Amino acid sequence: MSVVLKPGDMIGILGSGQLGRMIALAAARLGIRAHIYCPESGPAFDVCAQQTIAAYEDEKALAAFADSVGVISYEFENVPAKTAAFLEARRPVRPGPRALAITQDRFTEKSFLNDLGIPTAPFAQVDSLADLEQAVAKLGRPSVLKTRRFGYDGKGQTMIREGSNLAEAFASVGGGACILEGFVPFQREVSVIGARGLDGSFAAYDVCENEHANHILSRTIVPAHASPDTQKAAIDMAGRIAAALDYVGVITVEMFLVEEAQGERIVVNEIAPRVHNSGHWTLDGAVTSQFEQHVRAICGWPLGSPARHGAIEMHNLIGAEANDWATLLAKPGVALHLYGKHEAREGRKMGHWTRVLPE
Fold first, then answer.
1. Share in percent of the chain as helix, strand, coil (round to 5)
2. Is the same domain home to 149 and 287?
3. Any alpha helices (H) in 104-207, and if so which ranges?
4. How far apart are CA 20 and CA 74, in angstroms?
5. How does pLDDT run across 23-65, given as a tens digit for each residue?
6. 70, 71, 65, 73: which is closest to 95 by C-alpha?
7. Which residue, among 252, 260, 115, 133, has the nearest Cα to 124 in the 3D structure?
């Protein structure tokens, strides 16, 4: 459906976390209201025009939500498929349910990427301990065993190393549908944040370089340490993925940069069909933030410029790190963003800060 919204209209957002909050704030800046739907309250509820607390299986509540908005989007990729289908029958869901279906399953996602000729880690489907034994024999050690669905920030995965007990490893991730991925000897983790408009236009930010601590993104710098050819190849891959999905909205492609004797190469790790933590720097460091870009795309508006204002560094504030807010506010050139979460639990993303420097 080629629905185009206008200022004063309302978008629907599934999910009430910090990503939904920042989408709603960007929408408000453009005169677009936001209706947040989520089974529990969250920081996005503080900044939206309307809110619904109901289960994703509550069809009566979903129908009322759909009737109140012009288009529907989401801040996380684990929206139940039945929910997306129910809503899509009533209002445009952007990005579409096909992008959700492919990215919710790691095996389906990697198969999709390989069908496009985009390199990934070697992988094998694992549904039993016997499958795991065969996959390890084929892909070797080290390798990574992951659940096919519902994993994030390092959850739902375990390393298979020399001496690892395969039965224990399989049990540790639930003993269900899994995927084994061959280990990629990468030098850097990078990502491309891009957006595809309703008209098929595509705009991408410069490649981000990401550092993780305890499987959680800790620091992002832009531009990444990568050759111009490598950066172009990474952005081209993201554009091909978005086009193949007939995507509308912001898309994130997480990648490994591998350095070999013959030069650099890119291996795609996974796709996130949404705005992304590694793109938070765009709030202060780009002409158009990833959140405004997403709102523009799903509303059917022209995409904005992804140009940077300078060299960027962004740091996540995890757990108690957010308690240093006063110190951070006193630092020249630091832009602080706190997400309105009331409890600073260990491993919880509480905010981030960004610094933009001249190049």
1. 30, 30, 40
2. no
3. 106-115, 129-139, 166-172
4. 7
5. 999 999 999 999 999 999 999 999 999 999 999 999 999 999 9
6. 73
7. 133
290: containing domain: 188-357
Cis peptide before 95 (omega within 30 of 0): yes
- Residues 193, 178, single domain; the answer is no
SS3 312: strand
Do both 345 and 263 map to the same domain?
yes
The rounded distance, in Å, linking the Cα atoms of 127 and 177 is 5
Give the whole-angstrom CA distance, residue 253 versus residue 201: 17
For residue 174, pLDDT beyond 70: yes
What is d(CA 297, CA 202) in angstroms, rounded to the nearest whole number? 10
Amino acid at 39: P
Q: What are the start-end ranges of the H helices in 30-173?
A: 59-67, 81-88, 97-103, 106-115, 129-139, 166-172
Neighbouring C-beta atoms of residue 145, cutoff 10 Å: 23
Do residues 19 and 84 both lie within one domain? Answer: yes
**Predicted TM-score (pTM) above 0.90:** yes
Same domain, yes or no: 199 and 176: no
**272 with 349, same domain?**
yes
In three-state secondary structure terms, 19 is helix
Position 175, amino acid? G
